[in-house]
Amino acid sequence: MDHIQRGLSVFVFMFITVVIGLLPGAQAGAQTAKGEIVAFLAGPSGLVWRPLVPFEHGVLTVAGPDGTVFREEFGAGASPAFNPFVQPGYHAPDGSYVWEVWLGRPSVVPQQIRAAAQAARESGDAEVEAAHRSASTQATQVQSGAFRILNGAIVPSNLVEPRGMGRGRSSHGVAPNFRLTEWIDDPSIRPVDQVIPDDLIVQGSACIGLDCVNNESFGFDTIRLKENNTRIKFEDTSVGSFPSNDWQLTANDSASGGASKFSIDDVTGAKTPFTITAGAPTNSLFVASTGRVGFRTSTPVLDLHVNTSNTPALRLEQNSTGGFTAQTWDIAGNEANFFVRDVTGGSRLPFRIRPGAPTSSIDINASGNVGIGTASPNRQLTVGAAMTTTNLTPEATVNTTGTKPFVVGDGDNGIMIGFSGNDIQARTTPTFGNNGNLFLNPFGGNVGIGTTTPANPLQMASGAFVSAGGVWTDVSSRDSKEDIQSLTADEARATLSGLSPVKFAYKVDPTERHVGFVAEDVPDLVATKDRKALSPMDIVAVLTRVVQEQQKTVETQHQLISELATKLSVLEAAQGR
Fold it and tell me: Which of 92, 103, 409, 485 has the fewest CB atoms below 10 angstroms from its CB?
């Protein structure tokens, strides 16, 4: 049975889409007299919006009574549709839903301004961006409305409530030849309008509307509007240079399924700049005598004060109707953090401040210098000494023992990175007690590992370094060595014979070939403790000892050859040769 109902709903929804395309005036064209930019139709199983004006980009947003918001972007020629009953994971509750359609015509903005405005986003050219904003604002149009779901079905929107005939009328002023029932039944029969060519003073209350009755109970009401469609219109008949805009106070929509709301309408401009929907909580918007504005509070403390029980926030949404890529940001705060959320980018939180963060945790002065833990940064980035006792533990460990890196620097000599339990530290006098530290000297351009005084582009605590020419140089001073023993010729020859040169490629770059040795396969004399690396100096020492021994053999053989040559010369001379 469910699949039959669902199939019927889809059929009805498609039928609505076709019907609205055939409605008079539903084709794209000039904006209607009421300022409408879309024709809206709600049926039992879905809703359709048919654009009435040319556009390039459009955005449809639907907000449910439970606070759930649906958003859809569409392009030129499309008629957005929405079915609240087929949204994944959503059960559409009964109540009033609000919809909003934005249509943008960025083609009216000159192409050169649009291109320049894109670049101005990065360069900060306010003049160019302002020119684009002015043009794109004129090209953007918006229309909003409401529909209602009652007993699990959408209330049709093509019914408009007529003005009531009234009830409980008095017969005063009716001609004696007519019965009261005839006057009520025949709307063409009306008493003559009363025109008062002087001031009208009512020392009491006034009821206006077709449903006012004799002996109306006013309570404290001074003026009451009473019928099924209540409006107060301000129609200004000024001419010439005098302001003449018409305004209207509107209570509730006239269409079935519409919103129960109170609005201020700009009748001349065909806009509704202010609306309050029924059910809005007390003090939704409160302006205090001080000029401060409260949102959900009647006691605003600052110029703008937002008070709510769960994460007060501000949403900054740029839609695509102005020609730019859509982007949404949230700025919010709660007991866990103050944050900026990149909603479009997967709701990442690129910026967060935790409660209790100290003053000037990050401080940017007038020169653009950034201080961390200091209110007086004297360089582009200054780490203040006040952080020496602050425990800032990174989440990730850096080795198997679980120790964490720390940063040490005085802002003048450089920055050190090392390991000291779980602390990240900044110190005026850089000191640390092991060799697992990195010192960056931005002034000399040198990097020290385990040393604060690197004299070369890269220098180790042992004294080894990379020269300015890019040559790795091992430390070899006697002062840095102990247990010095001579390498015997037999040890060198045995080690050399045990070396097996191979051709290979590293896994990180299989395309580049090398020649060398495998650390696990070399003799113990030139192996490291973990047998995962090799020291070129070890092999050079072995080759040096072998070559020295070979050189001795060569010299001995050379001496022997010289002696044999001398003897041969003497023998030949004796034989008379």
Answer: 485
